[in-house]
Structure formats: structure tokens, C-alpha cells
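Record 1 of the preview.
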Amino acid sequence: MDSKSIRDLFEQVRKKELLPDEAVARLRHMPFEDLDFAKVDHHRALRAGMPEVIFGEGKTPAQIAGIFRKLALHGGNVLATRATLEQFRAVRKQVRKAEYRELARAIILYKDFTKHGKGTIAVVSAGTSDIPVAEEAVVTAELMGNPVQHLYDVGVAGIHRLLANRHVLADARVVIVCAGMEGALPSVVGGLVGVPVIAVPTSVGYGAAFGGLAALLGMMNSCASNVSVVNINNGFGAGYVASLINRLE
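->
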């Protein structure tokens, strides 16, 4: 339920295409719907400009399917992150058009193909092992209505790979950089572009990488002033924030 859908609803009532009681029935679940195990926020898109997103970890297949179905009935695009194939199968039984993006571990439903972003979001991964986190960012940004380009396996160990694709960075309005190990790539990218760079530390690396902590601390100490950092493996958070930035005039 966003501002456009509410205007459309009012317009249907004004034209007598919809009875007032029917309009009230559609609005009755605002601002949230209580499913006992979850309180589904149908008001979020109207309030924040972005719809509710489901975090899949810790939820049963039945729970995630129930939440996904309610969002599909009342909103636009639907996204569930950190989801399993088992959860997807449960969702698919209730929402036939739902899709599963295996690399991103995301369940998605496209209902609104409107482009809200003012420019392109570029998603960069340092190595092939960082791609799952990058794909979560890609799926999130696309579902939020942004044109997205991705550039994978261009880490600092072979910097010529990045420089050979510099045009992708030059064309972007926001850049997301996913890297593990020592997490140096966001600083390099930040020094090449004049737009916001969102750094995503990944848990890729040997023991001294401490599950992504080394990359996180390295990124937080970046000498590139246009670099901001989200949490370890948080491709969703990066895609969401990049979408908000890309909507600004």
C-alpha cells in the first residue's frame, strides 16, 4: 500500500467504481496485519517509500509463506532475504509467480516494474566468492526499482581487471563494493569515483580474517571519504541504502 495505490482507491470511490465499504475493507489492515507469529507492516511503503522485506533466517517455511502471501495481496514487489529452497517451495504453493534467486538466497515477486532510481547502481565484487553477497545487493536494488550493473571478480590482487571496466563505475550514481580478505577494494573504488560508495565486508577469508571482521575494520578505516560501510555480508542493507540515495534529486 503506497501513496499511488491509495490515490487510485480514492479515485475509484469518487467515480463510483468502488463502494466506500469496499475501500474501507481494503484499508482496514493499515498500518499492520496481525498474523499472531508476525505483524505484517503494510504501511511501510507509504511511510518509508520502500515496502516491508522478509528476513528468512529463523522463520519456518509456513511462517515465511504466510507473510509473503499477505504482502503479495496488499503490496507491490515482495522480497524475502536469506531464504532456503524449502522456504521457497512453501511460498510457491501460495504465490505461484514467486521466483527463487539461488545465489542471492532470495525469494522475489515482481508486480511493479516502475523505475524509481535516477541513475544506475553498480555492484562490484572483489572475488568470485563474494558474489552471493553482491547478488543479494543486486536483487534488492532491482526490486526497489533501480537499473543495476554488476562487475564481478575485480579485486585488488589484479587491479587491471577493475581499471579495464572503469566505464561501469563512471556511469554509476551509486556504487556498492563487496569484498572479503583485507577489504581494500572499496578504498580503491572510492578514489576513482565521485559518487557514494557503500562498502560491504564479506566473511570470505582465512582465519585471520575473523569471519569478515578484518574487512569490516579495514573498510571503516578507509582513507576515501566517500565510502560508508554496512555490516558483514549485508548485501540487502547496501542495496536498500543505495536505492534511497538513487531516488534523491
